[in-house]
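Lab notebook, bench 4. The sequencing result for the construct came back, and we need a structural model before the next group meeting so we can plan mutations. Quick request posted to the team channel:

Model the 3D structure of this chain.
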Amino acid sequence: TIGFSQASLPGDFLYPVRKFADKTGYLFVSKNDQPKLGLKIANKRLEELTIIVQNNQGRNLAPAINEFKQSMVEAADKLKIVNTVNGSPKITREIVKETEKLRENKEKVEALGVVVGETKELNQALSQLAEREIKDLESRALTESQEKLLAAAREDFAKGNFSQALEKLLLLSYSQE
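Done. Here's the predicted structure in token form:
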């Protein structure tokens, strides 16, 4: 049943089995990897939404949007875990990568004429992560070029561009290695 459910979409009979299989994945990954898995699941939901729109399956559209929104809330909750543990640059890199993929998938869906709404929860979690990284870097000795990157990250942060701020902070962490 689980195998057959993998091709199901929101609104289909076997979809609850697919959702259950996705959620059990949290049991098999470390706490540090849960935010990345949450973002991957949110990306899956956007991909499902794209398929529904492309196949003109209007009856599945509302359930798919709801599934995406629910997965975003769950991903944001998992992302807050990183804010409370000592996150590594590797974890932050993976989060930024998945967040960028999420943004691209959201743009694809919206280009097809479907508005999925804001992702407040994700923005809030990214804000907390970026703020923690900025505070950590402010307490370190940085070169002039690193200071410029940090200033650019602060500027993005102030504008609410948390994903871009995190990207700059990652560049800064690469230059420290």
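Residues 9 and 15 are 6 Å apart (CA to CA).
Will bring this to the meeting.
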